[in-house]
Amino acid sequence: LLDSEDKSLESAVVKVINPDEQCDGSLELQASSSSLVVKEILQEAPELITQQLAYLLRGSILFKCMSLEPERIAAQQEKVLSILEEKFPDLPPREEIISVLQENQFSPPSISIEEVMLKDLKELSDGEIKVAISTVYMTLEVRENL
């Protein structure tokens, strides 16, 4: 369900992909949302995947995988990455993307605290009272300086 301010977009939603519903209960790592989206597009409309979209989706998958050992990447994620790399051989090497992602993961944010708080904002309301909850990830060093 979309928030009230997004209700006008409801007719544009064609499918909801929930990674939790895709998990088969095995011990294999859960696939990333991006790999599930790529898998769906490849099945339904592979012509929609351009090199630019492949670059974006591949980066998102690699971001989720970058802290894992290569042998721990879920088979589905590996399959999707391989398909994108075969379809677009000019994509930068995985190691290069992971290196850039790691360099920027802990660099100081160039966005305001308000933008960080709004990024993952969840709102609950009983009609009278409205509660907003947001998750902010930071290193202990950053937290101590606040």
UniProtKB/TrEMBL annotation:
Top-level taxon in the UniProt lineage: Eukaryota
One term under GO cellular component: cytoplasm
Database matches in InterPro entries: DHH_sf
PANTHER family recorded: BNIP - RELATED, DHHA2 DOMAIN-CONTAINING PROTEIN
Protein name per the record: Protein prune 2
